[in-house]
Amino acid sequence: MNFQTEEQEVTYSKVASWLPEICDQVSNPFEDKPVFSLQFGSAAAIVEVRPFRQAESVIYIWSYVATEVTIKEDLLHFLLKQNDTFRFGGFSMADEGDIRFHVTLLGACCQKNEFELAIKEVLESADKFDDVIVETWGGRRSTDDLFA
Questions:
Q1: Tally of CB atoms within 10 A around 78
Q2: Are 107 and 49 in contact (CB under 8 A)?
Q3: Second label for 73, Cα 20 to 30 Å away, from 22, 34, 79, 143?
Q4: Chain segment 6-17, per-residue pLDDT in tens
């Protein structure tokens, strides 16, 4: 595993110890990167442990909501308005047409219950909004790709 900082490694170890209690299906899709892939029924989430500044790390939890979506002004307006309503996290786009929901937590002070709530927020939000986005703006739900 390639860690950029000691803090990243400590946070990765902490998250790795929590995941078996939270999720039955956990994998490490990249041998050399601090990333976990989680499967919850028909939903999937990614957990990345990233370095942050000199003495911190972040836990970035995300899930695809929809892919191949035609990006239009009303969609962007919808996503921004929805971001204002979330307790934690929000929508983002990694690539043109790929909409994700994510939560970012500080690694050093993160507690297990906070981590579990963040995973739940990501999965519930992705599940709630995938149909709305695809029905209104097109594209594919991320779960369509899992079971195609």
A1: 17
A2: yes
A3: 143
A4: 999 999 999 999
What CA dihedral angle connects 19, 21, 27 and 28, to 10 degrees?
A: 30
pTM of the model: 0.89
Contact residues for 26 (Cβ-Cβ < 8 A; gap 6+):
19, 20, 36, 37, 38, 39
What angle do helix axes 112-137 and 6-22 make, rounded to 10 degrees? 80
d(CA 89, CA 85): 10
Q: Check: CB of residue 4 under 8 Å from CB of residue 98.
A: no
| CA pair distance 146, 68, nearest whole angstrom | 15
Q: What is the pLDDT of residues 85-132, one digit of tens each?
A: 988 899 999 888 899 999 999 999 999 999 999 999 998 898 889 989
CA distance 9 to 138: 40
* Number of other CB atoms surrounding residue 80 within 10 Å: 11
Distance CA 129, CA 102 (A): 13
Q: Is 26 within 8 Å of 20 (Cβ atoms)?
A: yes
